[in-house]
Amino acid sequence: MATSLSRLSGRVWIHPGDPDPEAVKPCVAVIADDAGSTVVDAGQSPAHARSVKAAMADAGLPAARRLVYTHHHWDHTWGACAWEAEEIVGHESGAALLSAEARRPWSHAYLKEQVAAEPGLGPSFTARARAMSDWADFAVRPPTRTFTDRLVLPGGIEVRHVGGRHAPDSTVVAVPDSGVMLLGDCFYPPPFHLREPGPAAEEIDMGQITALVAEGFDWYVDSHSPPWRPPSA
User: Which of 15, 49, 106, 208 is close enough to 43 for a disulfide, judged by CB 3.0 to 4.6 Å?
Assistant: First the structure.
């Protein structure tokens, strides 16, 4: 699988995720700016983050000035400790969740203990174990700057809370001058261990994604699929 950055549109670049769902490695977006790039999601591990940083350098993009979390889940935040960004932006409801995560004694042994106690955690925690070759200098980093509804960052980047069943802090990031909306996992069903029995548990949030597509961006990027255009684009 190619891991280099590619320009999607305007100043938005995409570092593709892993198409194998068991890898749980999402794409990472880079919004280039001469004053310092904005990186949307930190990667699922320090190794993943370092791969994105190397690709940015190879592409001649400015180093990261800030990270923006689309939500608090591990595959979007565990790479943060490998970045040297000035700030990390995230929704206020995710800040408390990540602060709690930061206090947990993460290790391969701890992951195994948790799965033994709650088998539903198996898919997520097994993927975490594969992603982390070692735990030296690892830390979960909560946001250093939070918002409640929406926030406009330098360069006209729009950060908006949308919530939903997948995560209470789900956030979309719009780059109007490039015609791109970055969706994170906002319209996905809940994580496996939080799903109720029944077919509805795996349904996507059609109302939410329909409303977002109606905003008319040229490109939409969710975290575990290739970038896509709406039917009318």
Answer: 49
